Amino acid sequence: MPYAKIIGSGGYLPPRVVSNDDLAVELAERGIETSDQWIRERTGILQRHLVEQGVKTSHLAVKASQIALDDAGLAASDIDLIILATSTPDFIFPSTACIVQAELGAKNAAAFDVQAVCSGFVYALTTGETFIKAGRAKNVLVIGAEVFSGILDWNDRSTCVLFGDGAGAVVLSASDEPGVVGAQLNADGTQMNILAAAGNVSHGVVVGDPFLRMDGQAVFKFAVNSLAQSAHEVCEQAGVQLADIDWMIPHQANLRIINFLGRKLGIDSSKVVVTVDRHANTSAASVPLALDVARKDGRIQPGHLALLQGVGGGFTWGSVLVRM
Ligand code: UT7
Q1: How far is the CA of 39 from the centre of ligand 1 (A)?
Q2: Stretch 151-178: mean pLDDT, rounded?
Q3: CATH, domain 3-175, list 3.20.20.140, 3.30.1540.10, 3.90.1490.10, 3.40.47.10
Q4: Ligand 1 contact, 24 CB (< 6 A)
Q5: Whole-model pTM?
């Protein structure tokens, strides 16, 4: 049975950088008070990248995918499956994955979206690995891409300062060498109300609330506890110790969550990849973006063991252990 190995990665952030100070000025014009100090102290976020009006998720996904394909040394026609994780698709349908397939010219690929909010990339990576292990795909493009700025209530300071836009992608390929060595996914729909954008379009009108709403403190506690448990479970499944992990790449929602988690697991902060300071929370894009940053800056080397973790709306959470 072949392994599924990450052979390339790419990340793309829209060029418009909005610092906390810039955002505080913009929000003040609407009568909403926030500050760089509050955002920095509570979240570790210093800035975020935001799209210009009209830029869609597929646009970011295509850019990240092209970089990942180049990095893997593959052509778009080599890809036989595209799995795109997003909560901010371009349309109700077709799937954003199909739009990306067309833009890339990946004419031999099946394509579908995965919806698991901030756990989306971990869900999509696990799905891609399963296709490869079953012999149903050889080269899978796994993407996390979001334009969360479009579902934020810019009058709600408790959420709008936390998120950014972006996309990350990896190429997962059948290999005789170990790649994904463990995967563990979870959901608890009874917790759906602590983080949701509970709206839809029906009969041509918006029904419900189209904006993201969150009980921040409930999410905080749930995230730390669920990710700690998931890390233990995936290590047990793979027969490795937490001490064997070279790099922890958790969902980038809040530096305090990441630090709590690292301490709870006894993983030194020098082994934790952090991008939330520069990217803010990009939901399904956060893990592949962070992975790409740490591969490209030389921290993650071939043979290293990386723990990728997602947590978010649903509630969903999970972990993937990858031998790079
Ligand atoms: O992908 C998963 C998605 N989300 C997360 O992981 C988020 C998890 N939760 C968190 O990161 C934190 O709960 C937050 C960063 C969202 C909030 O931090 P907190 O320490 O839990 O703050 P809080 O909600 O208890 O609010 C404290 C105060 C409140 O004022 P009062 O009631 O004490 O007077 C808020 O109104 O901070 C106020 N506040 C703000 N002040 C300035 C809330 N947002 C802001 C803001 N600027 N942007």
Answers
A1: 9
A2: 98
A3: 3.40.47.10
A4: no
A5: 0.97
